[in-house]
Amino acid sequence: xxxxxxxxxxxxxxxATTISxxxxxxxxxxxxxxxxxxxxxxxxxxxxxxxxxxxxxxILGPPGTAKSLLASILSGAIDGAKFFYWxxxxxxxxxxxxxxxxxVALQQDRVCRLTTGKMPEAxxxxxxxxxxxxxxxxxxxxxxxxxxxxxxxxKAVPIPLMTMIGASNELPESEELEAMxxxxxxxxxxxYLNDGGNVRKLLTSADPVVKTKITLAEIEQCQSEAMQxxxxxxxxxxxxxxxxxxxxxGYRSSDRRWKQAVKLLKAFAYLTGDNAVNExxxxxxxxxxxxxxxxxxxxxxxxxxxxxxxxxxxxxxxxAAKELAAKLGSVNASDSAAKAEWLKQASLLETSLxxxxxxxxxxxxxxxxxxxxxxxLALDHVTKIKKGVTKRVAELYNL
Length: 399
Known about the structure:
With about 400 residues, this protein is of the alpha/beta class. Helix content is about 55%, strand content about 10%. It has two domains: about 5-225, Rossmann fold (3-Layer(aba) Sandwich), CATH 3.40.50; about 310-395. It has helices at about 20-35, 40-50, 65-75, 95-100, 105, 135-145, 180-185, 195-205, 215-225, 235-250, 255-270, 285-290, 295-305, 310-330, 335-365, 375-395; strands at about 5-10, 15-20, 55-60, 80, 85, 125-130, 150, 155-160, 165-170, 185-190, 215. A hairpin with a 5-residue loop joins β1 and β2.
């Protein structure tokens, strides 16, 4: 595909539309990142959406879940973008993050930091253990992430920061960290890999290396185009209902978050190939509104019932399929009794998965005019799980 001219592609709705070469390249990058990072599709979409609307992302999870790797791979795919990474502790000094003080300026009674290669010159900033920094650094982060300014040499200097990616193994506990926590518009909790097939791929594949490259100028073009995405009145009405219902459930978010969420939805719609925000895009709000990871499922249900109820059921079915598949476990083929019991459970699982497939096929047949992207994805996932179980059964019989 040429990157020198606009390309015409077929969108998911079946309508041909002309998109820029930059947007096509972004879609290629999105697809490759999802192939490289197993079970991280939502995080990839969240990171790219945040980048498109110049917002910030928090990734929570235990050590070793590829938080920093995903950030570095993404930044490395953007030619011309400056990336700054730092592991923060309570002993981290401003010099480490913002640059040393110029001795020449100090002799002139000026306090001027030399920011070359430091955070104030970065387009993407990965802050590892972001809540462990001391107050002096955190206060500078607040201004940098919101106003995109860095105070240096007595002046408020504009900085090129597009997206700050924060990583932490735990939620912030003190009230003084709440302002920093609120700066992260979209938040993810990522566990260790769950699917056995993906674990096998992880163990046997080479370290992820992204082949797709996109220029900083193309990213900036995509950012401009994303903000041209239309937000219909019906979506604004739906957002107001979501706000009311989530607040009734005790989930309150700042006015700033709701305002920024509209831009995030435009970016997400653009990323998924749409030129207007629709009910399906509201699902991203589940990762905007939670305060604790345990709250996400309930928020997703509330949002889904306002947006596209079919998405709620599709997600429930897909989660149930994953849970049942995980319970099947492995078997010692030399133990005839254990083998017979495993085959019995596998047969029951195949029956359950077939029923799930049937339910989703019925949903699609009864709702031909609804957006069925999520249902189709769930159906594909359940079918994949069933094929995997069938293959294991066949292999066991052939032993």
